[in-house]
């Protein structure tokens, strides 16, 4: 039986961007665009109406921005719980880390190849998180030092329930390593590395791998380089 396609909502205030994404998604296997939105408020409303699997969200939009829209879409009491992928221009956007805190599961830049964006949508729809490889270190290292409204719990409390081996795995994930790379570094199987990541997600209440990276930085397991 053929799997149902991943249903995508496009939220961007630039019609040309939406048109380009819609065109390439229409030609891709296993993906379909179910709606569009030109601002954050419309994105929240259309998400509730259409129940997409993934929302591709711009950050800078008139009225409600993508950060607040992401928070409303993924937060408690949301009418639907899709995954949100932030798609924006990194070099002039200081709000990406805020979007990840708000619940986004991925961060992509608009100059990525379209097939890379399609891959990212599929990865996020499958339950994982993804940050554009070209800016993974640059993004997290820059924004990890920007505090939230309240200081996050230190490693002594937030990581109290994890084992020493899980702490090692979290440190490596925070450094941007894949499961295969974690396995190689720790001399364990890829399946075992994946099991450790799954346990960390459950113990730390993280949505996905992206948020494990954030936790690794917030708790000091990985130090941002200056």
UniProtKB/TrEMBL annotation:
<keyword id="KW-0238">DNA-binding</keyword>
<dbReference type="GO" id="GO:0006355">
    <property type="term" value="P:regulation of DNA-templated transcription"/>
</dbReference>
<dbReference type="InterPro" id="IPR058245">
    <property type="entry name" value="NreC/VraR/RcsB-like_REC"/>
</dbReference>
<dbReference type="InterPro" id="IPR000792">
    <property type="entry name" value="Tscrpt_reg_LuxR_C"/>
</dbReference>
<protein>
    <submittedName>
        <fullName>LuxR family transcriptional regulator</fullName>
    </submittedName>
</protein>
<feature type="domain" description="Response regulatory">
    <location>
        <begin position="7"/>
        <end position="125"/>
    </location>
</feature>
<dbReference type="Pfam" id="PF00072">
    <property type="entry name" value="Response_reg"/>
</dbReference>
<feature type="modified residue" description="4-aspartylphosphate">
    <location>
        <position position="58"/>
    </location>
</feature>
<dbReference type="InterPro" id="IPR039420">
    <property type="entry name" value="WalR-like"/>
</dbReference>
<feature type="domain" description="HTH luxR-type">
    <location>
        <begin position="155"/>
        <end position="220"/>
    </location>
</feature>
<dbReference type="GO" id="GO:0003677">
    <property type="term" value="F:DNA binding"/>
</dbReference>
<dbReference type="GO" id="GO:0000160">
    <property type="term" value="P:phosphorelay signal transduction system"/>
</dbReference>
<dbReference type="Pfam" id="PF00196">
    <property type="entry name" value="GerE"/>
</dbReference>
<keyword id="KW-0597">Phosphoprotein</keyword>
<dbReference type="InterPro" id="IPR011006">
    <property type="entry name" value="CheY-like_superfamily"/>
</dbReference>
<keyword id="KW-0805">Transcription regulation</keyword>
<dbReference type="InterPro" id="IPR001789">
    <property type="entry name" value="Sig_transdc_resp-reg_receiver"/>
</dbReference>
<keyword id="KW-0804">Transcription</keyword>
């Amino acid at each position: 039986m053929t799997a149902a396609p991943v249903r995508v909502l496009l939220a961007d205030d630039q019609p040309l961007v939406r048109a380009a994404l819609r065109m390439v998604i229409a030609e891709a296997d296993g993906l379909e665009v179910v709606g569009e939105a030109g601002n954050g408020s419309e994105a929240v409303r259309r998400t509730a109406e259409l129940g997409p699997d993934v929302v591709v969200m711009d950050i800078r939009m008139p009225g409600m921005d993508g950060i607040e829209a992401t928070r409303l879409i993924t937060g408690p009491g949301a009418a639907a719980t899709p995954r949100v992928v932030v798609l924006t221009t990194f070099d002039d956007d200081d709000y990406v880390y805020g979007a990840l805190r708000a619940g986004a599961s991925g961060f992509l830049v608009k100059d990525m190849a379209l097939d890379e964006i399609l891959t990212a949508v599929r990865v996020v729809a499958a339950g994982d998180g993804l940050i554009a490889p070209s800016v993974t270190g640059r993004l997290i290292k820059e924004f990890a030092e920007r505090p939230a409204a309240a200081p996050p719990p230190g490693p002594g409390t937030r990581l109290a329930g994890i084992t020493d081996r899980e702490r090692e795995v979290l440190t490596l994930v925070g450094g941007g390593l894949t499961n295969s790379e974690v396995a190689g570094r720790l001399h364990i199987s890829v399946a075992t590395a994946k099991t450790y990541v799954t346990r960390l997600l459950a113990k730390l209440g993280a949505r996905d791998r992206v948020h494990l990276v954030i936790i690794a930085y917030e708790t000091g397991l990985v130090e941002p380089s200056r």
